[in-house]
Amino acid sequence: MKNTPCLTILVAMLLISGCGTGVRQADLIFVSGRVYTLDDAAPWAEAVAVRDGRIAAVGSDAEVTGAWAGPTVDLAGRMMLPGFHDAHVHPMYGGIQMMQCDLAGLSSVESLLGKVGRCDAALPEGEWLVGGGWNLSLFPEANPHKELLDGINAERPMFLRGEDGHSSWANSRALTLAGIESETPNPSLGIIERDADGEPSGTLRETAQNLIELILPPLTLEQRVEGLRAAVQLANRLGVTSMVEASVSDWELPVYRALEAEGDLTARLVLSITVGEAPAGTTNPGLIAPEDRGSGKRLRLDAAKIYVDGVLEGETAALLEPYIGRDGASGMLLQPQEALNETVAGLDARGIQVHFHAIGDRAVRSALDAVENARRENGVRGNRHHISHLQLIHAEDHGRFAELGVGANFQALWAYPDGYIMDVNLPAVGPERVRRMYPVGSIERAGGLIVGGSDWSVSSLNPLEAIETAVTRQDASGAIDGVLNPDERVPLATMLAAYTKNAAYVMHHEDEVGTIEPGKLADLAILERDLFEVPPREIGEVDVVMTLLEGAVVYDSGILGGRAAQ
Q1: C-alpha 387: how far from chain center
Q2: Which of 57, 129, 279, 336 is 20 to 30 Å from 545 at the Cα level?
Q3: Using the 8-state DSSP alphabet, how is residue 41 labeled?
Q4: pLDDT tens digits along 43-61
């Protein structure tokens, strides 16, 4: 019988709807994968369907393809995870560093000076040479001398930020332009390193860096936006879809807003607005917007950043016991405890999350004490405060993270016996304290929430390198032998949770992302291999082959069929 026009229309409608069989149309279907969902109720699956930016279905190939039709990608046994979360990162700073004289990853003084020489040769006469990322452990007492830079070009002012962000290196010309002389006093909370005769050596710590920062030629908004764009693209290439920007000042905020306005913000960001005393100065806490929490915005301002101390490399980290051979010096707290208590309690009462920087065990205790005080004053507010770095934590404070609901935000990539720890930290704090550095395992055993962050551009932005290091406590690159505190190793599952659902919880968006479950946003990372089948020492070498944000492909290696980024 010949179809009538009405019957043809009816058949077409049935085909679209699945002919009454319940089959629905998806935007994208992934099959034959090792899907690690991070959902405790159903941790593994084979297939995922995506529709309208959200996860429509998760299950076996038969379950998903039996209920959904649409463009299909064969994962061929590759691993799918929730998009990685980096809970402590400096994307704009790192992106700009990539555009300047980038010294990251150079492992000798000779290679550093060679790179600076090439940067110098590429610049017009009279222009500042600005860069960063140099390894402090390459120099005695983390104190490079100005004469090394003077030997390259004594006429050009040079200013190079250290990879830790707490020290910088300048040549004589830059020091002169900034008015830094033997008579120049140390600024509040800063140190001008000096030779035996009192002359500035060229290394500036903490707020002393500002003496030169304030006279540097300013970057344009367009240059800053371009740096941030490059950083977000790098994050996407590494499977990162959510980030906590660790320290934002009032002049940096327009950069993030500009990238968002251009439609190129392909990651979710919580900006931690700097308040109180800090190495980079102070910022107006009025920038913080508590109402952003739960808004679903990609760019949120519902967090504050507080620096509690400095760093061990500059001996400005606050310790419970003194540094060795420093006449009883034990570093510095950047705020007296009463002032910190007042600041934290005030922020907590307003519904603002506090993101602490704390390196030394005295600083960690000070931050925990401030949260405990806030709880006494305000009750439990659910603000999910977290402390980053945590190089030293006294054993008596291990259990307090769980008791106070404070996230332990480790930069696990640092937890191996590198030059910083063995050549710089060990002489300053001794073997007993080195043996308890980065106690990830101890905090987990005490019930604390482990959260992962990179502190890029201080160290690699690649979450898999940090995950490998936390699992092995060895150098992910293989260049350095030895193990740092093997008792502090943690399982792979712990670190995958740290970089997905745990960090999503700290960011207050665990209802939307962080696990692969129907109804959640399709923020996904696809890896070339199943991490649970990879030798631990190879985890950091596994490549990300595709990253999706709300179902849109924001990074594509081409391995899965060359789907163009949407």
Answers
A1: 13
A2: 57
A3: T
A4: 999 999 999 999 999 999 9
DSSP string computed for 230-273 = HHHHHHHHTTEEEEEEEEE-TTTHHHHHHHHHTT---SEEEEEE
Give the up-direction half-sphere exposure of residue 307: CA atoms within 13 A in the CB hemisphere: 24
How deeply is 550 buried, as exposed, middle or buried, from its count of CB atoms within 10 A (0-12, 13-18, 19+)?
A: buried
Single-letter amino acid code for the residue at 221 = L
440 SS3 class? helix
Check residue 21 and give its pLDDT.
58
Query: Residue 334, exposed/middle/buried by CB under 10 A (0-12, 13-18, 19+)?
Result: buried
- Quote the pLDDT of residue 250: 87
Would you call 444 helix, strand, or coil by DSSP? helix
- 92, containing H or E segment: helix 91-99
Q: Which tokens go with 481? A: 């032998």
What value does the mean pLDDT take over residues 416-441?
A: 96
pLDDT greater than 80 at residue 2: no
pLDDT higher than 50, residue 396: yes
- Is pLDDT above 80 for 564? no
Q: Across the beta sheet with 72-74, what order do the strands follow? A: 54-59, 47-51, 28-31, 72-74
Chain segment 13-24, per-residue pLDDT in tens:
333 344 445 899
Amino acid at 376: R
- The interaxial angle of helices 221-237 and 253-261, nearest 10 deg, is 70
- At 540 the pLDDT is 97
Distance CA 483, CA 498 (A): 21
CB 545 within 8 A of CB 529: no
Identity of the residue numbered 86: D
The rounded distance, in Å, linking the Cα atoms of 31 and 8 is 32
* CA dihedral (181, 182, 184, 186) positive or negative: positive
- Report the 10 Å Cβ neighbour count for 217: 8
Contact 6, 13 (CB under 8 A): no
CA 289 to chain centre: 21
> In degrees, to the nearest 5, what angle opens at C-alpha 316 toward C-alphas 391 and 231?
65
> What is the separation of C-alpha 380 from the centre of its chain, rounded to a whole number of angstroms?
27
Cis peptide before 330 (omega within 30 of 0): no
Number of H helices, E strands in the chain: 19, 26
Q: What is the pLDDT of residues 239-258, one digit of tens each?
A: 999 999 999 988 899 999 99
Structure tokens at 336: 């007296």
- Condensed to tens digits (0 to 9), the pLDDT of residues 142-177 reads 899 999 999 999 999 999 999 888 899 999 999 999
Q: What is the pLDDT of residue 277?
A: 56
- Return d(Cα 345, Cα 500) in angstroms, integer: 29
- What is the C-alpha to C-alpha distance for residues 192 and 203, in angstroms, rounded to an integer? 7
**Distance (Å, whole) CA 449 – CA 494:** 10
**Residue from 312, 378, 366, 316 nearest 341 by CA:** 366
Residues belonging to the chain: 566
